[in-house]
Write a structure and sequence with these properties.
binds beta-alanine, Rossmann fold, three-stranded antiparallel beta sheet, 9 strands, binds adenosine-5'-triphosphate, single chain, binds pantoate, alpha/beta
Length: 359
């Protein structure tokens, strides 16, 4: 595969989102239904940026599109793909009830800065039926989401590979909300030499913390309340790690902490003594186990709520391969990931964490 400008992508370049366009003034995105229409779409002067979606667009998608617009610039082109990919669904019911809102999607995409929306039918993308040759996601694709949704990542990577070939972007934008998906796409691009730069975009949340997701529309008010436990658990874990890091920083600068606590107790300074003792005790309860436990507490409470949260997994993993972080790890990047069902709706969320930092 070659991209439009014939250049291999560079990696790691940060992109800022462009400001939103004024509603009503945005030109509508052109709807392209076939690969032939896509190939014939306006000749390209600059870079092409692509945002792949399954439709039912929300502010998370709009942020991706605005970020893509800023990266492509005024000479460039932004193409949004909308395709509910049967290959990546396990349960037929999940595929059937997946929301399809193409008219609204065209408006959201246009307002966020897309030039075109490529929304092929299933027959257009898979003219010979289900493809016999597929991308295999490998071991990383069998962990977490892959374990819960067997075959999901093979199906996802197969359609992403096809859409990259059809759209031929310089840059392609994916949300960190689907962290394992993003890691696998990066891995495929690296392992198979796709000439495209993959850019991750931070998770967009509601003001109360709930990660935006097309599946949120299935939640009633009570279910939504229970679902808030996902983000609350992640934030509790992040705060636990930050508190632990602050204690460590102080422990390193405070000499003879235990002796000082005893002296403070003798002086009747009980609060100061307790604080000093906490500093002294910080190290043994630190680390991955404490971070997982902070999140687990919130999830256990939510499991007792009405309606209850049914936890699928809580995992603290290495972002490179999604293997579990060992309890004795004290430095490095990690992702804390949660999947849970509330009612009939399965939700995922995650947060990046860095062990060993003291800021
Ligand atoms: N809250 C969000 N913040 C940032 N990116 C997001 C968010 N939600 C989805 N995305 C990204 O948008 C792209 C398209 O995702 P998709 O169409 O599956 O939406 P979704 O909201 O994740 O839907 P669902 O979770 O119900 O499948 C993916 O790269 C995904 O990571
Ligand atoms: C990347 C993707 C569009 C492939 O179908 C899908 O998995 C999604 O929307 O995240
Ligand atoms: N957002 C990931 C696509 C899926 O759930 O199938």
């Amino acid at each position: 595969m070659t991209n439009r400008t014939g250049r291999p992508g560079t990696s790691g370049r940060p992109h800022a989102a462009a400001p939103p366009r004024t509603p009503g003034t945005a030109p509508a995105a052109t709807l392209l239904r076939t690969a032939a229409e896509l190939a014939a779409f306006a000749p390209l002067k600059g870079q092409r940026a692509v945002v792949m979606t399954m439709g039912a667009l929300h502010e998370g998608h709009a942020t991706l599109i605005r970020t893509a617009r800023a990266a492509a610039g005024t000479d460039g082109q932004v193409v949004v793909t909308v395709f509910v990919n049967p290959l990546q669904f396990g349960e037929a019911a999940d595929l059937e009830r997946y929301p399809r809102t193409l008219d609204a999607d065209l408006a959201v995409a246009g307002a966020a800065g897309a030039d075109a929306v490529f929304a092929p039918s299933v027959d257009e993308l898979y003219p010979g039926g289900e493809p016999q040759v597929r991308i295999s996601a490998g071991p990383m694709g069998e962990r977490l989401e892959g374990a819960s949704r067997p075959g999901h990542f093979d199906g996802m990577l197969t359609v992403v590979a096809k859409l990259l070939h059809l759209t031929r972007p310089d840059t392609a934008f994916y949300g960190q909300k689907d962290a394992q998906q993003l890691a696998l796409i990066r891995r495929m691009v690296r392992d198979l030499n796709f000439p495209v730069e993959i850019v991750g975009v931070e998770t967009v949340r509601e003001p109360d913390g709930l990660a935006l997701s097309s599946r949120n529309r299935f939640l009633d008010a009570e279910e939504r309340h229970t679902a808030l436990a996902l983000s609350r658990a992640l934030f509790a874990a992040r705060d636990r790690l930050a508190a632990q890091q602050a204690l460590h920083a102080r422990a390193q600068t405070t000499a003879a902490t235990t002796g000082r606590a005893a002296a403070l107790t003798a002086l009747g300074e009980t609060r100061a003594a307790a604080d000093t003792q906490a500093v002294a005790l910080a190290r043994p309860v630190d680390g991955p186990a404490a971070v997982r436990a902070a999140a687990q507490l919130i999830l256990d409470d939510a499991a007792a709520e009405q309606p209850p949260l049914a936890l699928d997994y809580l995992a603290l993993v290495d972002p490179a391969d999604f293997t579990e972080i060992p309890d004795d790890r004290t430095t490095g990047d990690a992702i804390l990931a949660i999947a849970a069902k509330v009612g009939k709706t399965r939700l995922i969320d995650n947060i990046p964490l860095t062990f060993g930092a003291t800021t």
